[in-house]
Amino acid sequence: MNESLTAKTDHLISILKEYGSLLIAYSGGVDSSFLLAMAHEVLKRNLVAITAKSALHPERENQDAKAFAQKLGVKHMFIQSREMSQADFKANTKRRCYLCKKYLFEDLLKIADDLEIQHVAHGANLDDLEDFRPGFDAAREMKIMAPMVDAGLTKNDIRTLSKKMSLNIWNKPPMSCLATRIPYGTQITVEKLKMIEKAEQVIMDLGVNTCRVRLHAKVARIEVNSGDIEKILDPVVRSSVVKKLREIGFSHVAVDLEGYGQGSMNRTL
Question: Of 67, 23, 52, 69, which Cα lies nearest the Cα of 179?
Answer without folding.
Answer: 52
